[in-house]
């Protein structure tokens, strides 16, 4: 069953701060120190006058990791939430969770100028053959039998990262 084997495609860490440009620049250094990779600024796509946001304005930062670096980072991020996830964190082939304070992550130090910032983490899983949907010439859909279900995503996390499935009330 080599074609059915699930692996991790990428881990994306995202921080959204709004219109505070100085704080966004400090967050870029925070993400750099946490992940060891160069983060990018995320830009607003819509105008939100209440928050003084317009299209093209930087409103956050994110970094995407793949391979061994992604696995190491995910283990550290799961320690911050005590390796406990709920069913609502999982979807078909993806899982997302939040960390309310970056200082909960092991080996991270509090920065007085930055304050407390939360992170959102998204993990994308893949199987051999998933590149069919991303290729430039003749992209095609993944057959239903080959897609990754919510249950398979939960099983993958239990096996490889020793996560616990908690109830919504416990968290």
Explain how this protein is built.
This protein has helices spanning 21-35, 67-80, 150-161, and strands at 7-16, 40-43, 58-65, 84-85, 90-91, 94-99, 119-126, 164-165. The protein is α+β, with helices and mostly antiparallel strands and 171 residues long. The chain has one domain: Ribosomal protein L5 (50s Ribosomal Protein L5, Chain: A, 2-Layer Sandwich), CATH 3.30.1440. The strands form 2 sheets. Strands 2-3-1-7-6-5 form a 6-stranded antiparallel β-sheet, with helices on one face. Strand 5 and strand 6 (94-99) form a beta hairpin.
Which percent bin holds the helix content? Answer: 10-25%
Sheet with the most strands, sense and barrel status: 6 strands, antiparallel
Total count of helical runs of at least 4 residues: 3
Distance between the termini: 36 Å
What does the average pLDDT come to? 91
**Beta-strand content:** 15-25%
Number of strands: 8
- Envelope shape: globular
By CATH, the architecture is named: 2-Layer Sandwich
State the CATH class: Alpha Beta
Number of domains: 1
Radius of gyration: 18 Å
Q: Walk across the major sheet and give the strand order.
A: 2-3-1-7-6-5
The assigned structural class equals alpha+beta
State the CATH superfamily name.
Ribosomal protein L5
Return the CATH topology.
Answer: 50s Ribosomal Protein L5, Chain: A
Low-confidence runs: none
* Secondary-structure element order, N to C: EHEEHEEEEHE
